[in-house]
Amino acid sequence: MQNIGSIALLIPIVTMVALFTFLSIAVWSEERRKEREAHYRGELMKKMLEQPGPAADRILDLMRGEEERATAQKREGRRLGGLVTMAVGLGIAILFVALEPGESLWTIGLIPFLIGAVIFLFSIFGSRPQEVAPRREA
């Protein structure tokens, strides 16, 4: 009987160790990938500086396009996050109206709804990318 109790106690411990190990490896591999991308990007920039010309301009345009796509993707992610948070707030408000009609508990749902509204509005109106002025040669 004692054996079964100790095995049952080991299951959550092993699960937590496995989860921590998995998350550690996942984060490490993602950071390693970002590090390699930054290294290759730096090498490419170095070669572009050594050999300027139309090919370097095309590569620079491609890199700018990648940055613009990444910015647009972040903005869309914020919009989606804001809409989901607003929906959660609305759902909480409806739940409290159904559970306690006549009470003002539904206002609790306003907290996540308003947070979602701020995130959504920020994704639309806030944080536009700054245009970089071209450098003038002296």
Overview of the molecule:
Helix content is 80%, strand content 0%. The protein has 2 domains: 1-51; 72-129. Helix 2 runs antiparallel to helix 3. The chain starts with a helix and ends in a 13-residue tail after the last helix. It is mainly α. The relative contact order is 0.07.
The pLDDT mean sits at 85
Q: Which consecutive residue ranges, at least 5 long each, have pLDDT under 50?
A: none
| Cα-based radius of gyration, to the nearest Å | 26 Å
Structural class: mainly alpha
Portion of residues within helices? over 70%
Distance between the termini: 86 Å
Elements, N to C (H/E) = HHH
Number of strands: 0
Main β-sheet, in a few words?
Answer: none
Principal-axes geometry comes out as flat
* Tally of individual helices: 3
What percentage of amino acids are in beta strands?
A: under 5%
The tally of domains stands at 2
Keywords:
single chain, 138 residues, mainly alpha, 2 domains, 80% helix
Give a brief description.
The protein has 138 residues and is an all-alpha fold.
